[in-house]
Amino acid sequence: MKVIKRKKQRGSLLLKLAIFAFAAYIVFALVNQQVQINEKSQELADLQEQVETQKIKNEDMKHALNADEEETKEYIERVAREDLDYAKPGERVFVNIAGD
Prior knowledge:
- By secondary structure, the protein is an all-alpha fold.
- It has one domain (about 10-80).
- Helix content is about 70%, strand content about 0%.
- The protein has 2 helices and no strands.
- The longest helix is centred in the middle third of the chain and has 57 residues, at about 10-65.
- It is rod-shaped, with a radius of gyration of 33 Å.
């Protein structure tokens, strides 16, 4: 009886390497898409917050237009202080750097 030695099949090694590379690419693509989805979700949340803030400002403006002169002055002062960071002459402004 004659013993036949088999040669190692190089094709199967190349096939395994190709499958591994394809699987690695798929995993990378899925992780990358998940990161993009998270970034877009955060952008959407920020935009929705900006829209809500703008709605509040619009309501404040409508109220100010319909208000009397004293309320209008108070509104202007509040907007100047909060949004524009203005202060009256000689007034001390304290900033909380603790973030609370």
